[in-house]
Design a protein that fits this description.
The protein is built from three helices and no strands. It is mainly α. Helix 1 packs across helix 2 (30-38) and helix 1 packs antiparallel against helix 3 (41-48).
């Protein structure tokens, strides 16, 4: 997989990663919580990378 294509997508994926790791409550973003449930931590880490 490649890094996220937009800054907003990257932020959503990083939030989903934080939820997956138990650092952020799922109630903060139902959309990110759904993504966290559907993707592996490795996939989320990959999407969360910035394109520097």
């Amino acid at each position: 997989m490649s890094p996220a294509t937009s800054e907003s997508q990257r932020k959503l994926m990083c939030l989903a990663l934080s939820i997956k790791q138990g650092l952020t409550p799922a109630s903060r973003s139902p959309e990110a919580a759904k993504i966290a449930a559907q993707m592996s931590e490795e996939q989320l880490k990959d999407f969360c990378k910035s394109e520097d």
